[in-house]
Amino acid sequence: MNVRDIPAIVTGAASGLGLASAEALAAAGARVTLIDRNVDGVAEAADAVGGLGLACDVTDEADAEAAIARAAKAHGPARILVNCAGVAPAARIVGRSGPAPLADFARVIGINLIGTYNMMRLVAAGGAGLDPLEDGERGVIISTASVAAFEGQIGQAAYAASKAGVVGLTMPAAREFAGIGIRVCAIAPGIFETPMMSAMPQEVQDALGRSVPFPPRLGRPREYAQLVMAIIANPMLNGETIRLDGAIRMPPK
Length: 253
Fold this sequence. Notes:
Layout: E1 7-11, H1 16-27, E2 31-36, H2 39-49, E3 52-55, H3 61-75, E4 80-83, E5 94-95, E6 98-99, H4 102-127, E7 139-144, H5 148-151, H6 157-177, E8 182-189, H7 195-198, H8 202-210, H9 221-233, E9 241-244
Parallel strand pairs: 1-2, 1-4, 2-3, 4-7, 7-8, 8-9
Antiparallel strand pairs: 5-6
């Protein structure tokens, strides 16, 4: 798909992987709507890329429906969705003070998995009625998984479970949406330079980077965005979760 003048929505777009994806789409000529819970951050990011910035909780049905309606009014129904909204708290299932609060687990599943599903279902419903493009394609949905889906570390139970859910969602969604010409893929990043990572001490970041076989460094958000653009451009990529990790395999802790 050629993204020029194509309406696109990116969640988690105020920073990190989402912002890089929005920047790449806007630079290629897409009409981009940036969505994030960070009201000031998403407004600033939207101004920087020349897109529409909307504050939205992707886990809230009404909030998401309203945001997608506003995006459609401004740019037309979205043909591209990039799901980057997510959280990655660390907690053992059973810690020193006892079992982890169930609400904490539910929150991570809600944002990372249910939020992804919520946006996917709404964008796919809107795209089903669009005129097909080349090869009968109507749209592309890209979600963010993680290498933790395959090698979750101690303390990552909620995060790993949520990202494994994203991986599991990808194939059935791709099969279902094949009939309406919407492709579905996921990207499973390894250790990337994100706001969460930048909050760690520099020596910790350097050590994590050296643990990547090659290149021996943290991934850069623009490299995630490059893969987003490659998936959109290649009509045969469908139903796949692609690791983007420099060949790292995470140890238990």
